[in-house]
UniProtKB/TrEMBL annotation:
GO molecular function, one term: alpha-1,2-mannosyltransferase activity
GO biological process, one term: protein N-linked glycosylation
Protein name: Glycolipid 2-alpha-mannosyltransferase
Record-linked InterPro entries: Glyco_trans_15, Nucleotide-diphossugar_trans
Length: 400
């Protein structure tokens, strides 16, 4: 008799404890402050996190933390936009680092998609790791052979001879065939890949890049609202030996297609003599946020096709950075090009660290302002400011 009474007591006590525990746990999880999770495309991770929190508070002696957590994602609609990365399977751990930076500083709050492109098939490890790291949807595309090979009008012997010469001259990537395919692909094809046709905006990310400040607003929405088409964080002078005839080819294009040249263009950024010669300034294209429909426009396609016919991707070593920059400089109005001073960025060997201490403090920046390249003599960013009649950021003299 005494035994079954004790059992009864245990059962009643256990039930009571369960009810109390349920009550505490459900009221201590601030579910109302995580509304955006419900709309997220990847609900499994956040839910798991919530379960872990409840499981870790079994003792009623622990006082619940009443602090309201910030929402996991920023509310509002998203733009028709994606990140895009061209990479090899062997780039996996370097792109993993880049993704982590982009997610931590920006995309965990926005959950944009990420398109990966490769001239080969992506392997399972690449897909598994990148899918785990990206908060939005990931998509993997193979580049069609026609977009990653020599066009039929290219003289293979001539191209091979150039590679030999460039090797002797120790020009970086001078003897590389794949680097040339890469530059041509980024110049003329990535925006036409079937996976990219679903989007209007892109943000290009390369392996081993870093972001040093929080980005708390939607950069794609900014581009759309301010009517921007192309953007940059770093600009510099191109290595002349890689593009000796690029400007001649550009002038041949402008002669054939004067209708594609914008009235209020950024020629002043590209040339110091009204277009006679190129000053070699370009926006560094390993970072880009831009409009895909502009790249798919007749004007841009005519420009790329004209350059491609001239053969400089193979007979020289034209980079996609000067190609995109010249296109933007001539075929966009200059106010359609945006300098993202607030995006702190690193791609070896240059850093863009925003000028102005208050901005850096407010956005949890971790870059050393002394590393900022903008006001260095080898940067073209001062020219961009001058062309647009913009005041340089306050305090720039002290940070160079
Ligand atoms: N699939 C594929 N991607 C490539 C190939 N070569 C380069 N890439 C990618 O193209 C982009 C530019 O190549 P990088 O090697 O970074 O060229 P870079 O930025 O001029 O030079 P680094 O200073 O070495 O970074 C990166 O996103 C690379 O992952 C290739 O042969 N195949
Ligand atoms: C996104 O943009 C692409 C290219 O302009 C377009 O084809 C597609 O319909 C758009 N998607 C949505 C959801 O608006
Ligand atoms: C000049 O441009 C035209 C039109 O794009 C092109 O057909 C031609 O091949 C170009 N010539 C040279 C030398 O690049
Ligand atoms: Mg790179």
């Amino acid at each position: 008799m005494a035994g079954s009474q004790r059992y009864m007591r245990y059962i009643v006590f256990a039930l009571f404890a369960l009810i109390v525990f349920y009550f505490i746990s459900s009221s201590s999880v601030p579910s109302a402050s995580w509304p955006a999770y419900g709309e997220s495309t990847t609900p499994s991770t956040p839910n798991a996190a919530v379960t872990a929190v409840t499981a870790a508070t079994p003792h009623s002696s622990t006082t619940p933390n009443e602090k309201t957590l910030p929402p996991a994602t920023i509310s509002g609609d998203r733009m028709n936009a994606t990140f895009v990365t061209l990479a090899r399977n062997s780039d996996i751990w370097e792109i993993a680092k880049s993704i982590r930076h982009v997610e931590d500083r920006f995309n965990r709050k926005f959950n944009y998609d990420w398109v990966f492109l490769n001239d080969d098939d992506f392997d399972d490890e690449f897909k598994k790791i990148t899918t785990a790291l990206v908060s939005g949807k990931t998509k993997y595309g193979k580049i069609p052979k026609e977009h990653w090979s020599f066009p039929e009008w290219i003289d293979q012997d001539k191209a091979a001879k150039v590679r030999e010469e460039m090797k002797e001259k120790k020009i970086i990537y001078g003897d590389s065939v794949s680097y040339r395919h890469m530059c041509r692909y980024e110049s003329g094809f990535f925006f036409r890949h079937p996976l990219m046709l679903d989007y209007e905006w892109y943000w290009r990310v390369e392996p081993s890049v870093e972001l040093y400040c929080d980005i708390n607003y939607d950069t794609f929405k900014f581009m759309a609202e301010k009517k921007k088409k192309y953007s940059f964080t770093l600009s510099l002078y191109e290595y002349v030996d890689t593009i000796p005839t690029l400007w001649d080819a550009t002038k041949n294009f402008t002669k054939h297609y004067p209708q594609h040249i914008a009235k209020n263009n950024a020629m002043k950024f590209l040339s110091d003599d009204g277009g006679e010669t190129y000053n070699h300034c370009h926006f560094w294209s390993n970072f880009e946020i831009g409009n895909l429909n502009w790249l798919r426009s007749q004007a841009y396609i005519d420009f790329f096709t004209s350059l491609d016919k001239a053969g400089g991707f193979f007979y020289e070593r034209w980079g996609d950075a000067p190609v995109h920059s010249i296109a933007a400089g001539l075929m966009l109005n200059k106010d359609e090009i945006h300098f993202f001073n607030d995006i702190a960025y690193y791609h070896v060997p240059f850093t863009h660290c925003p000028t102005g201490e208050q901005y850096r403090i407010d956005h949890k920046c971790s870059c050393n302002p002394k590393d900022n390249f903008d006001w260095n003599g080898y940067s073209c960013t001062s020219r961009f400011y001058e062309m647009n009649g913009m005041e340089k950021p306050a305090g720039y003299e002290k940070e160079q």
